[in-house]
């Protein structure tokens, strides 16, 4: 289990209405989780790389949640970018999507997703889903705590 | 209409028989509908996944791999690095299940493509609970690729 430190969740949500729902659901989780919402992939990358005045103090997220409306290449491009970046690839990325297409599910895992969750239409079910996600990632699973060693570890692996 | 529920297939790579038995017990205690297959190291895990040799000729493709880190011949880190390079196998999620709580192991596992890292609880009830939470996530909450 993770220590008592505050955990950080970066959600990329392309629907403004859903950002509010997510905020509410995260508040209900009961774990110490700080939610940051990026409205598109470019903003998410700026956040992750602490680019620009707005994100210069952005924390490194413990988990990234990609909330996507439809199947598409754009989120896969983001996933590939994150998983090819030595500073970012250790951050697990979970997909929340409406598509049940086998090809979409498979593509997500193929490109390094650590879970593919179907987005429930019902708002109560949505909160329940976020709660279950939280139980796994923020309660049970060990996540990296000291990412100053990420580059070190990457170098050792690549040698 | 008659529907058949397919059990989830779990491949456990674990060289310690006592720990493998504990996983088996936890799956049964939690009533997780799963077929558990156990191999003793990374090399044997690849033989299973690639259906090599008479023992694994009919091996099913697992939905989830539970991976110990410290094993002989091919350890968990080497296995993770290799499976995530294999186009035919890289979409199978791998969760590390280990006694190590060394930060370097945690970072390296995620870096190599693990979809979770669980330190084995010493207490048996906590162990059962850990497996329940793994089951809740992988077999109830998330969608996994179907058997091909």
Characterization of this structure:
Chain A has helices at 16-29, 41-48, 52-55, 73-84, 102-110, 123-140, 150-158; strands at 7-13, 33-38, 63-67, 93-97, 116-118. Chain A has 159 residues and is an alpha/beta fold. The two termini of chain A are 30 Å apart. The model of chain A has no long low-confidence stretch (mean pLDDT 87). By secondary structure, chain B is of the alpha/beta class. Chain B has a single domain (8-130), classed as Rossmann fold. Chain B is 38% helix and 16% strand. The relative contact order of chain B is 0.18. The chains are: A alpha/beta (159), B alpha/beta (148). Chains A and B meet through helix 5, strand 5, helix 6 and helix 7 of A and helix 4, strand 5 and helix 5 of B.
So how many helices of chain A? 7
Number of domains of chain A: 1
* CATH superfamily heading of chain B: Response regulator
Helix-strand makeup class of chain B:
alpha/beta
The CATH architecture classification of chain A is 3-Layer(aba) Sandwich
Strand composition percent of chain B: 15-25%
Largest sheet of chain B: 5 strands, parallel
Question: How far is the N terminus from the C terminus of chain A?
Answer: 30 Å
Number of structural domains of chain B: 1
CATH superfamily of chain A, by name, is Response regulator
Quick summary:
With 159 residues, chain A is an alpha/beta fold.
Which features does this protein show?
heterodimer, A: 159 residues, alpha/beta, Rossmann fold, 5-stranded parallel β-sheet, 5 strands, B: 148 residues, 5 helices, 16% strand
């Amino acid at each position: 289990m993770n220590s008592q430190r505050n955990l950080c969740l970066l959600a990329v949500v392309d629907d403004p209405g859903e950002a509010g729902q997510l905020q509410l659901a995260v508040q209900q989780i009961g774990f110490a989780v700080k939610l940051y919402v990026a409205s598109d992939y470019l903003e998410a990358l700026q956040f992750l790389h602490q680019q620009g005045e707005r994100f210069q103090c952005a924390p490194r997220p413990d988990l990234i949640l990609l909330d996507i409306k439809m199947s598409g290449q754009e989120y896969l491009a983001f996933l590939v970018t994150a998983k090819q970046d030595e500073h970012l690839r250790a951050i697990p990325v979970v997909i929340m999507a409406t598509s049940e297409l086998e090809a979409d599910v498979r593509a997500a895992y193929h490109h390094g997703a650590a879970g593919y969750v179907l987005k429930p239409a019902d708002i109560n079910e949505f909160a329940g889903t976020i709660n279950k996600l939280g139980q796994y990632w923020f309660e049970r699973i060990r996540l990296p705590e000291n990412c100053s060693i990420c580059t070190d570890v990457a170098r050792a692996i690549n040698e | 209409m008659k529907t058949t529920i397919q059990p989830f297939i779990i491949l456990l790579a674990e060289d310690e028989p006592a720990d493998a038995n504990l996983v088996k017990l936890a799956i049964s205690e939690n009533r997780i509908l799963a077929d558990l297959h156990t191999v003793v190291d990374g090399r044997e895990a690849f033989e299973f996944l690639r259906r090599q040799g008479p023992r694994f000729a009919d091996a099913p493709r697992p939905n989830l791999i539970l991976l110990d880190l410290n094993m002989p011949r091919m350890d968990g880190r080497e296995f993770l690095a290799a499976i995530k390079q294999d186009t035919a196998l890289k979409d199978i999620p791998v969760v590390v299940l280990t006694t190590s709580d060394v930060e370097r192991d945690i970072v390296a596992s995620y870096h190599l493509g693990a979809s979770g890292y669980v330190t084995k609880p010493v207490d048996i009830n906590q162990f059962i609970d850990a497996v329940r939470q793994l089951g809740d996530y992988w077999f109830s909450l998330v969608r996994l690729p179907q058997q091909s």
